[in-house]
TrEMBL record:
Domain Carbohydrate kinase FGGY N-terminal: 16-259
Protein keywords: Kinase, Transferase
Alphabetized PANTHER family for the sequence: SUGAR KINASE (PTHR43095), XYLULOSE KINASE (PTHR43095:SF5)
Organism per entry: Pleomorphomonas diazotrophica
Family the entry assigns: Belongs to the FGGY kinase family.
GO biological process: carbohydrate metabolic process
Chain ranges of the Carbohydrate kinase FGGY C-terminal domain: 276-471
Pfam families, sorted: FGGY_C, FGGY_N
Stretch forming the signal peptide: none
A Gene Ontology molecular function term of the record: kinase activity
Gene3D superfamilies: 3.30.420.40
Name of the protein described by the UniProt record: ATPase
Length: 530
């Protein structure tokens, strides 16, 4: 253990971030150099209750306490000191959803998470009337659906917020929210970094048409940007987070944020013309805009960075899962003939083969649709490999096509941005498929027509990201968030940049044209195969 680290912890020259994800609640303590000092994790799962996805209040507090206790134990084990104070604190969580409270602060109905899709009518009406894309998962969609369904609790609603906003409120007494998280509740005005005033006024009128006594604009939390004062840990809050009573009262707390915003911080993607791409079970891109888009696009969610810059989000339901399934098949084959059955070795060999494939995939098409895909109008998915008799079926072409398939739908969404004149200087990519150096990264650069960066970032992800935002509150006075990240956090990071290769770009463009035409095959497969 380092005496310097132990001293920083004992003296409170640290920042703590806690993020409530969909399957884990993770706590991350960092030092003044933004390096991870200790972590703590607690696993949890949502429940399907009365046909809605939720987490109970009890699970929220038990999970926060367990993650903090695990962090404190890790601090003691690694550094030999008790965790009694930190320099700054921050909370983040999965975005969107609906937490509604009465005037006394009582939760009126169980927390409705982003995963619920019962808000279709509300989202459609809001999108049409307000001229802005309201996804099903947004808090305003949830509230308006409850209103038009005339749910009994609606007459008693005095405050609504997100999961991060709820935790922050209980621990500080402040009904505030970070602008990035707020942008998943209601549209944000890029100039004011607050809810869009004309849109909010019209929303209030729509609500009053059903519930005259309900003043909807007054139900939302106050919006703050990164670095602003969001209150401090109260005695009640300290006890709620650390029932042992060791944690000091009065710790400054940064604005609560959503997981999209903390992911952008963790990948240094908060400046205009930058963004990030996360590839896992699903794949999505976040692109920071220089100016608002001119047209409403249902393929795009418009949110913001924690600093308040507008972000276009392209979210695809299908990512790298089908690629992983094929790798599993090849692993089985390798084992059957007495070869290496190590999954990582097989992945590496398959990815290297992809680079030897033809730039257009040799006439092969693949669709990775295990689930439905809203961007291409599909309610269900049927994974397919399609080729003409004259196509060239080789391992290289097959694997290149499978990698292309992981990016195909994303490209269609990104093309909407290109059509709006959006420019990209760089995108940071993260996810397991980028572990094999230079392969998926190079092909992604061709798919989006922009340089793609991969590199070492904290494996704690969003929890580290909200810890960095807490440290920004503590020590970033006078610095713009993007400059702070570039100069103080990522200045020494090891990064590898792949620029689009002209031949790859041409080949991928030809492949994507066939891919888009072939969506009719995918639709027919959904209808024909139950």
């Amino acid at each position: 253990m380092s005496e310097a680290m132990a001293a920083a912890i004992a003296e409170g020259r640290t920042s703590l971030g806690i993020e409530l994800g969909s399957t884990n609640i993770k706590a991350c303590l960092i030092g003044p150099d933004h390096q991870v000092l200790a972590t703590g994790t607690h696993g949890w799962e949502n429940q399907f209750v009365d046909r809605l996805w939720t987490y109970s209040e009890e699970a929220i507090w038990a999970g926060l306490q367990a993650s903090f206790a695990a962090l404190a134990a890790d601090v003691k084990k690694r550094h030999g000191v008790e965790l009694t104070k930190v320099g700054a604190l921050g909370f983040s969580a999965m975005m969107h959803g609906y937490l509604a409270f009465d005037a006394a602060g009582k939760l009126l109905v169980p927390f409705r998470t982003w995963r619920n899709t019962n808000t279709e009518r509300a989202a459609a009406e809001l999108t049409k009337t307000l001229g802005f894309n309201f996804p099903l998962r947004w808090s305003a969609s949830h509230l308006y659906q409850a209103v038009i369904d005339n749910e009994p609790h609606v007459g008693n609603v005095a405050f609504i917020t997100t999961l991060a906003g709820f935790v922050h409120w209980r621990l500080t007494g402040q009904k505030v929210i970070g602008v990035g998280d707020a942008s998943g509740m209601f549209p944000i005005d890029a100039a004011t970094h607050d809810y869009d005033a004309p849109m909010m006024k019209r929303f209030g009128e729509m609500v009053k048409a059903h519930k005259p006594a309900l003043d909807a604009p007054k139900l939302f939390p106050k919006v703050l940007v990164a670095g602003e004062d969001a209150g401090s840990l109260t005695a009640e809050g300290a006890k709620l987070l650390d029932p042992t009573g060791k944690l000091t009262v009065g710790i400054p707390v940064c604005p609560p944020e959503g997981d999209a915003g903390t992911g952008m911080v963790a990948t240094n993607a908060v400046a205009p013309r930058t963004g990030n791409i996360s590839a896992g079970t699903s794949i999505f891109a976040m692109v920071v805009l220089e100016k608002p888009l001119t047209t409403v696009h249902e393929e795009l969610d418009i949110v913001t960075t924690p600093g308040g810059d507008l972000v276009a989000m392209v979210h695809c339901n299908n990512g790298a899962s089908e690629l992983g399934t094929w790798a599993g098949v090849f692993t089985e084959f390798a084992k059957a003939i007495g070869g290496k059955s190590d999954g990582n070795a097989v992945f590496g060999a398959l990815f290297e083969a992809a680079l030897k494939g033809e730039a257009d995939g040799g006439g092969l098409l693949a669709y990775n649709y295990l689930a439905g895909e809203p961007i291409t109008g599909l309610s269900e998915g049927r994974p397919l490999v399609v080729r003409t008799p004259g196509s060239r079926l080789t391992l290289g072409n097959f694997m290149r096509t499978q990698l292309y398939a992981a990016f195909g739908t994303l490209s269609l969404g990104m093309n909407v941005l290109h059509g709006e004149g959006v420019k990209l200087d760089s995108m940071f990519a993260h996810g397991g498929m980028f572990k094999t150096a230079g392969v998926a990264q190079r092909l992604l650069a061709a798919a989006i027509g922009a340089p793609v960066t991969v590199g070492d970032t904290a494996s704690e992800g969003g929890a580290w990201g909200i810890a960095v935002l807490a440290e920004y509150l503590r020590s970033g006075k006078g610095k713009v968030l993007g400059d702070y990240l570039g100069e103080r956090v990522f200045a020494g990071a090891k990064l590898d940049v792949a620029k689009p290769d002209a031949e790859d770009v041409k080949g991928y463009g030809a492949w994507l044209k066939q891919y888009e035409a072939g969506l009719a095959i995918q639709k027919a497969a959904v209808e024909a195969i139950s």
